[in-house]
Specification:
This protein is an alpha/beta fold. The protein is built from 23 helices and twelve strands.
Length: 654
């Protein structure tokens, strides 16, 4: 046997992990914790089928049944693509039927169907395998905001002292003391995983799911995480995690092992008896493999991957192992009791009306509190990125100075004036490329938090962009002041319009880039598409490619989609429509070079207010598209909540 790494008795005192109970002054913590024991999770005939492939046998999960008790650490283990994460997501209520696949079966918490009207974070704590955080917030700030978002609906008003106590308890539980004031982007993989767990444990859930908590971590980081999981189990919580190939000593701290193989459940029982279940069976003929493996995990992993041969040199497939388990699973039952807690019959999950449940859960005062928390966090998240903020401000000052000088040198030629204005608008649009990763990270955090029901998509749509638009407004004013002072442009109403158009130019550019970033699948693609998009809008604005040069089916509408065209046209009309020095008259009939230039670009016949209305319309379109894309991502990630069809095999005894 290898040396034991993990121990059932953790090094963390239980007094450090009762979260909200200790923070509000509960006298008898032990008694209060016992009243909050986790639910017993019962699942029957869970089956996940790719639609259209049920008859071909390409199921993700095949009719799995079992029970996960409170006060026990349950681990779902198996080879790659065995269905570990799918089963975990289904048990947590995170995976339901969609247009691509169907989920069948029953899931009950204490013999009650999952109420999907309740947000995920209120039902359980769920940690995804991918750690996503705001990169420039510290550990204590991330945990604090996580707690505040999760306690908005609470009837108890938590003071600052209460919040600090809760955060300190969670930090102590996960041993993050020395990283309290460290930004999340500087954390190691192990610390980032513990930070993800801290966010989900901060509100004291009685049911806790964690996907691959120790995969790819060092021995020290794995030990801390497993010790924290054992601490939760000691508090009578229901803890269910997945693991691929953990250390062999991991089985010493696991109470219940669920072993999967290619979508079949081939074992569900005490972890200490898993090896003997396969090696001591004369029907499986695997006795010769008992002493051939140095690690029990390696043996079970090969069993899960169907890589072990019998004494008759034949390989067992997953279906035969599943059949054998169901014929002998009574002898490996590990529940706390042989009866259900209430004795109620198992029923299918009801159809949930999302709109009605969302309206019922809506409280205007709670939404204002959420908006306040989100706005505060968005503000800190933006202005903690000092290099990005300072870099964009310096670039705007530089662009304003350069193009102001270039425009001053071009005041005697109308086409040059339009070209310089257009290039300036393109470069200010390109300056948004510095926000690409920031916007992408914000979107990832939003999708993760929305999947847990922390706040709505509409609230995020309204609040999240306010700090960024405030920053861009300041930069727009600085840019406009620099150009206006260098060129000594007209005052009065024309000056006010000049500032307004420049502000709209920055806003519409930011909204456009933000929408593009949210549409694209990854940040690398965004960094390639954004410059190409800016050049595309400049290329077809009429400055480089004239409308007469385009095909007939493109000429009427393609230049109109370019916001650079409308920005440049509005500025030219405002400043140079009656400027005979920049656009002098020529010929015996006093032809206007201004009208000639506008006709060359295909910009004639429009007023500056018409151009302004088109720009405002573009902002509205980008905002609406951004909202639609956000909703689409939410639906794609969460899945359509539909009725989970009950599928019961009458021959199976549960």
């Amino acid at each position: 046997m290898p040396p034991t790494i993990f121990r059932r008795v953790t090094s963390v005192s239980s007094s450090h992990s009762y979260g909200l109970l200790t923070s509000v002054g509960v006298a008898n913590v032990e008694e209060k914790a016992s009243l909050r024991a986790g639910p017993t999770v019962v699942f029957q005939d869970i089956c996940c089928v790719i639609k259209g492939r049920k008859d071909s046998g390409e199921n993700i999960l095949h009719a799995m049944s079992g029970k996960c008790d409170w006060g026990r650490l349950t681990v779902i283990m198996g080879a790659e693509k065995s269905g570990k994460s799918s089963l975990l997501h289904i048990l947590a209520g995170e995976m339901v039927s969609t247009s691509n696949y169907s989920v069948y079966g029953d899931i009950l918490y204490d013999n009650k169907p999952i109420d999907r009207r309740i947000s995920t974070f209120k039902r359980c704590g769920f940690v995804e395998s991918e750690d996503i955080h705001f990169r420039d917030l510290t550990v204590v700030e991330i945990i604090t905001y996580a707690l505040r978002l999760r306690t908005v609906d609470s009837t108890y008003c938590y003071s600052t002292i209460d919040v600090n106590n809760v955060v300190s308890h969670v930090i102590d539980l996960l041993q993050l003391h020395e990283f309290r004031d460290v930004k999340s982007k500087l954390l190691s993989i192990g610390c980032a995983r513990r930070l993800s767990m801290a966010e989900e444990l901060v509100h004291e859930p009685s049911l806790f799911f964690c996907d691959e908590p120790i995969s790819g971590l060092s021995l020290k980081a794995s030990t801390i995480i497993v010790s924290s999981l054992r601490e939760l189990v000691n508090q009578n919580k229901t803890v269910i995690v997945t693991a691929h190939e953990p250390p062999d000593s991991f089985l010493d701290v696991v109470d219940t092992l669920i072993l999967l193989s290619k979508g079949y459940m081939i074992y569900n029982g005490p972890a200490s008896e898993a090896t003997e279940f396969f090696t001591q069976s004369p029907e499986l003929n695997l006795s010769k493999h008992g002493g051939c493996y140095k690690s029990r995990i390696d043996f079970l992993a090969d069993i899960s991957a169907c890589c072990v041969t019998t004494t008759k040199d034949t390989k067992l497939d997953a279906k035969s192992l599943c059949t054998y388990y169901h014929d002998h699973h009574r002898s490996t039952s590990c529940g706390k009791s042989g009866e259900d807690m209430t004795g109620k019959p198992i029923t299918g999950l009801p159809l949930i009306d999302i709109i009605r449940s969302d309206i019922c859960a809506f409280r205007l005062s709670h939404q204002f509190r959420r908006a306040q928390i989100l706005l505060s966090r968005a503000w800190f998240t933006l202005f903690r990125r000092e290099k990005m903020v300072v870099g964009t401000c310096l670039s705007i000052v530089y662009l304003g100075s350069v193009f102001g000088y270039m425009l001053g040198e071009a005041t005697n030629e109308g086409i040059e004036v339009a070209s310089v204005f257009g290039m300036g608008n393109m470069c200010t649009l390109l300056s948004n490329i510095q926000f690409v990763y920031f916007l992408f990270n914000n979107n990832q955090v939003f999708l993760r938090e929305h999947s847990k029901g922390l706040y709505s998509c509409g609230l995020h749509w309204v609040v999240n962009d306010i700090p960024l638009l405030f920053l861009r407004s300041i930069q727009a004013i600085a840019y406009a002041v620099i150009i206006h002072e260098i060129l000594v442009l007209r005052g009065g109403d024309a000056e006010y319009f000049f500032y307004l158009v420049n502000w709209i130019m920055f806003v519409v550019g930011t909204q456009l880039i933000e929408t593009v970033v949210y549409i694209l699948p990854d940040v690398r693609t965004a960094y390639r598409i954004v410059p190409a998009l800016a050049f595309f809008l400049f290329y077809f604005s009429g400055i480089i490619v004239k409308p007469d040069m385009l095909p007939r089916w493109l000429a009427p509408w393609l230049p109109s989609v370019s916001v650079i065209r409308w920005l440049t046209q509005a500025l030219l009309i405002n400043e140079y429509q009656y400027n005979r020095e920049a656009f002098p008259e020529f010929g015996p009939y006093h032809w206007s070079s201004y009208d000639f230039s506008m006709s060359v670009f295909g910009w004639g016949g429009k007023t500056k207010w018409y151009c302004l209305r088109v720009l405002v319309l573009n902002i509205i379109i980008y905002r609406v598209v951004y909202l639609i894309v956000s909703l689409y991502h939410v639906v794609q990630q969460k899945g359509l909540r539909s009725k989970v069809i009950k599928k019961i095999d009458e021959e199976r005894i549960f």
